[in-house]
Design a protein that fits this description.
252 residues, globular, 6-stranded mixed beta sheet, alpha/beta, 3-stranded antiparallel beta sheet, 9 strands
Length: 252
């Protein structure tokens, strides 16, 4: 593996937290993690709640720093983790787009040029020109996600906890991610509990348990997929599903 092909390199990374409980020991969210991620890799991270998935994304994004070890990252990051960071509650949606776009490193002129497409993607109607503090959580998510995806990132970090909203917006988001990552130069890292999402987007996998890497093969994802399918195997086929069985759109 050539050095220039590696866009993320973690070397013996640890991340510990002191829990605010009297007499408690440190909580080790990440333990001695060393991984190399190449340009164009699509990495899916799986693991139980508390396994360290989101912590790893935050470390790569620079949101938090490792307790020990080093992390090297090459390229512009679109971080879909803490999406509301950098938004001002007193500003309108339109004003926040300009502010947040510049925080992402875009020039003011570039943000203004992308403004209409960002607003169309967010699809929050007249609320684009009212203060951010009156937005519902769903509107905040739509706007923040739209700004994050508007930049041309080298690396996309995606925490599944933010994959919310109605089904139409979720599908639109997935299509946008698919479009971004179709570029072989773009690296995607996504954590998820849903194996079908990982299988759709990823070509590499990482299983975390108690902050440590346990496995990096597709076997873990295939096993989870089988569990998922087994759970829903008794769901009866509906009449509409029978009618749409040969429909090309339904099959996609």
């Amino acid at each position: 593996m050539r050095k220039k092909d590696v866009v993320i390199n973690t070397r013996r990374v640890y991340k510990s937290y002191k829990l605010p409980i009297k007499g408690s020991e440190e909580f080790h969210a990440i333990k001695d993690l060393s991984i190399k991620i190449k340009r164009g890799d699509k990495l899916g991270i799986i693991g139980d709640n508390g396994a360290g998935k989101t912590t790893l994304l935050k470390l790569i994004a620079g949101v938090t720093r490792p307790t020990r070890g080093t992390i090297e990252v090459e390229g512009k990051i679109a971080s879909l983790i803490n999406l509301e960071a950098g938004f001002n509650s007193e500003l309108t949606g339109r004003e926040n787009i300009l502010l947040n776009g510049m925080i992402h490193g875009l020039a003011k002129e570039d943000v203004q040029r992308k403004m209409d497409s960002i607003i169309r993607f967010a699809d929050i109607g007249k609320f684009i020109d009212v203060p951010y503090f009156v937005y519902s959580s769903g509107m905040k998510f739509r706007l923040a996600l739209s700004v994050s995806l508007a930049i041309k990132p080298d690396i996309v970090l995606m925490d599944e906890v933010f994959m919310v909203g109605d089904i139409d917006f979720q599908i639109k988001t997935y299509k946008k991610i698919e479009q971004l990552t179709r570029d072989k130069r773009v690296t995607l890292i996504i954590d998820s509990h849903y194996p079908l999402i990982l299988r759709k987007f990823c070509n590499r996998f990482l299983l975390l348990k108690n902050g440590q890497m346990m496995d990096s093969s597709i076997k873990s994802v295939l096993g989870l997929t089988q569990k998922w399918n087994n759970y829903f195997i008794d769901v009866p086929e509906t009449e509409i599903e029978k009618k749409l069985a040969n429909n090309p759109f339904y099959q996609r």
